[in-house]
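The following block was generated as part of the benchmark described in Methods. Ligand: S-adenosylmethionine.
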Amino acid sequence: MYERLKKFWRNSASYVYAKFVMDDRLKKLLKYGVSYADASEILPPVGIPSNFFDKTYLSDQSWWKEKAQAWWLEEPEWEELLRRDQAPIPDRENREGYFAKHHLAFWISGYRDYRKTIAAVEPYGIRGGRFFDFGGSTGRVFRHFEFQSDQWDVWSSDFKLSSVGWNQTHYPNSIKVFLNNSNPSLPLPDSYFDLVSAFSVFTHINETETAWLLELRRILKVGGIAYITIHDEATWLNMVPMIKNKVEKFRPDIADLVELPEGKTVVTFRDDDPYNCHVFHGRQYIENVWGRFFEICEIKSLNHDQQAVVICRRPD
Ligand SMILES: C[S@@+](CC[C@H](N)C(=O)[O-])C[C@H]1O[C@@H](n2cnc3c(N)ncnc32)[C@H](O)[C@@H]1O
């Protein structure tokens, strides 16, 4: 009798344990089937880039004073760049909060990232063709591939409804924009793109990371490049206050560490949405995990402000 009671108790305990664990996992996985549940509205744009251009602005704003940005002061062709891009600039609510009220800084930061990207992929033989900006939001970067060059056929997707709606409303039809869901699948053909980018996207993807990498590999042509930014060891050492606060609040166990822990470090800050974490990747992790699917050509720290870029080539 005692043995039977013990067995019954053991089975019930493991059932209760399994039920709670499974419930949590199931809930999380189900959320991966939906678009980003953020309730943002589509707000009127703030103007077009030339509305905010003022040469003194460039030297007055703190962003331009930082040494890393100094080369902008020498950009000779401002008027020409602005003439080519007459599309509106999104309200900060529709651009992931980037650059608060500094609308021109938002536009120029995208131009800078566009220029850095084309310069970095050129040595790998990528000079034009089809370009896909995964998690492209409202075009901080991809708009420059469209307006500042005639070498690219520009595509972008995001899982945030309002961003894709904004793009459909305000960009010309030549830019192909669509909503993807949180499950790693893209309605795009195999071997289609020369260049794929993901700026500050894998910094927010945890469980589905490798499946998304495989999707990006699938849509790239052989020899094509995936240009993906991450938080690496140098980001950890130069952490901006906004992320530092999240680490202190949600991962107090690691907040005081001087060095980034090995492997992948995840700081989950909510659980009601698939957009729910900050992710840090150690270089060794990138080689071990991403290197199974791509040739890891370069990892450049602090290349896009505090983020590193991983230049990945599709091998076959
Ligand atoms: C920090 S923002 C960066 C936006 C843009 N790439 C840029 O650099 O301006 C992260 C973007 O990734 C998108 N995102 C995150 N996970 C995604 C996923 N699994 N599928 C599509 N978009 C995703 C978010 O909706 C958001 O627009």
